[in-house]
Amino acid sequence: SVLLEKAHILSHAHEYEEALDYIKTAKLYEPYNSFILKVEAETLLELDRINEAEESFKLALEYSEFDDEEYVVDIYTSYAQMLCQNNQIKQANLLIEKGLQSYPKNESLYEQLAFNFIAINQYEQAIDYFKKRIDLNPYDHYSWFNLGKFHEITGNKIEAEAAYEYATLSSSEATNAHFNLGALYEEKAAYQLAVDHFLSSFKDQEDLYPYVCAARCYIKAEDPIKARYYLDQAKEMENLISEYLFLKGKSYMLEHD
Hints:
By secondary structure, this protein is mostly helical. The protein is built from 15 helices and no strands. It has helices spanning about 1-10, 15-30, 35-45, 50-60, 70-85, 90-100, 105-120, 125-135, 140-155, 155-170, 175-185, 190-200, 210-220, 225-235, 240-255. The radius of gyration is 23 Å and the shape is globular. It starts with a helix and ends with a helix.
């Protein structure tokens, strides 16, 4: 609406009080509009009016019943981030758990669960938390992945590797776990295993980096032909990351050593 457009321009100029006036006027016309309520919550946050922002987030969720998943998840994660910033970790977790009841396979909600703990450096608590989630559902590959991630953060790479392996066994969709396993095996110089996991982490043509990782492993294994093969698969990344050209140059150097 025109009112929200004006509010957006004012917010962009950091004139949040004025923006809020337009949002409240828009709300008079559409009191049950979830999007208006979400914008109101975010504007109130900018003004450090936390309690009011929370009420707006609650209403935004209440009236989002018929909205699409991506939008509703965005409300959940924004609301949870606000709670984390105010050290309300338990409430943030309960909120995301509620979201997972509606969207049990939403990766963004699981990422937010992990962020809840990272935000206040509660790594050991995160390990306990995800273990409990796994006890309730041993096939929850997202929880296995997050368990592995927190083991890795705390320096326990053996446990991290095991958790990532369980994630990949739990679901064929555990691509992030495959990627992290690739990195762990590369670190141990188990290059063929690393390549296998990097390739298993491939999602779509939007993310060709696993091919670059496979090429890097073959460079380390002194196999320039295979390295260039995988670099060719990721040719679209040639001008995007400096690592690409470095690996390509290294492959030709290996051939002439």
